Amino acid sequence: MKLRTLLAPVLVVTFAAAARADDGPDETPYYPLKVGTTWTYRDADAPGAARVVVKVVKYEKVGDVLCARVETHSGGKATGFEHVAVTKDGVYRHSINGQRPDKPVLLLKLPPQKGDEWPVEGKLGGETFAGTMATTEETVTVPAGKYPAFVVSGKVQVGGTTLTTEHAFVKDVGVARIRTEVKGQTVRLELQKFEPGK
Prior knowledge:
The protein is mainly β. The chain is built from one helix and twelve strands.
């Protein structure tokens, strides 16, 4: 369960390189960032299909970049937070649990297209990571519904460990399905409910 708690915030995130200087960061319909936006997932591999709730709680600057602070809760407790923002060419992550990578890392190219591929590499918390991500198209079915999605997947080496990850991005919803595997353990999060912010 400890691994699941540690991975939950990693799975539903993005990195950011720039944002506009008004009342909030730039947005994309593939990752809505208005304050109050909430995603409720079921953890298909946890006992009783436990719920994981991810919510945009406020805007904060990381360095000189305005980001959305996205918090993850599981079992009624906060398990992590990240800073997320969007540029015209992609969705990026700026921090995870207070740690910043040495450079923003792209998780979704914008506009998304089938066949997109890019390297992911850098350092975070004293560990190096490196891998390749690719985008495909798929219709995903989760408890919240059936959606056409751009699915970003790949393998990333973190230290000496291989992390296999997949995020299904849905227009006007965000991440509808997340799958990850590390050290033989799998986490599958499936969207139960999406609540847009205002």
